[in-house]
């Protein structure tokens, strides 16, 4: 009876270890989402208001990695123009960065002259 219990416990541990390996290797894979960000006029800085990072200047294509959807809020800034803010959702559903870039959503901001 003791041997059967030990064997059963070992099998459970092996099964759980195998499940952990599967989760780590494939089930939690990274996905991608992308946005083509444009402004009028072009050349505006794109500031991610979540962490105040500069994502680049318009026109720009930005790629996000991870899983699920994410609401992104950006501010467009350019000397001689009033800043403007826009929000959009990035759905990180593509299996590769290339697929995300090919299916990027369009984001647009218009700045008014001061």
Please write out the topology.
Blueprint: H1 2-27, E1 31-40, E2 45-48, E3 53-57, E4 60-66, E5 68-77, E6 84-92, H2 97-102, E7 105-110
General description of the model:
The protein has a single domain, classed as Immunoglobulin-like (Sandwich), CATH 2.60.40. It has two helices and seven strands, in the order αββββββαβ. A hairpin with a 4-residue loop joins β2 and β3. About 15% of the residues are buried. About 5% of the residues have low confidence.
| Poorly predicted ranges | 21-26
**CATH-defined architecture:** Sandwich
Quick check: average pLDDT?
A: 87
Q: What is the domain total for the residues?
A: 1
Broad shape? elongated
CATH topological fold name: Immunoglobulin-like
Helix content: 25-40%
CATH class: Mainly Beta
- Fraction in beta strands: 35-45%
Question: How far do the termini sit from each other?
Answer: 85 Å
Kindly name the structural category: alpha+beta
How big is the Rg?
23 Å
Largest sheet: 4 strands, antiparallel
Key phrases:
single chain; 114 residues; alpha+beta; Immunoglobulin-like; four-stranded antiparallel β-sheet; elongated
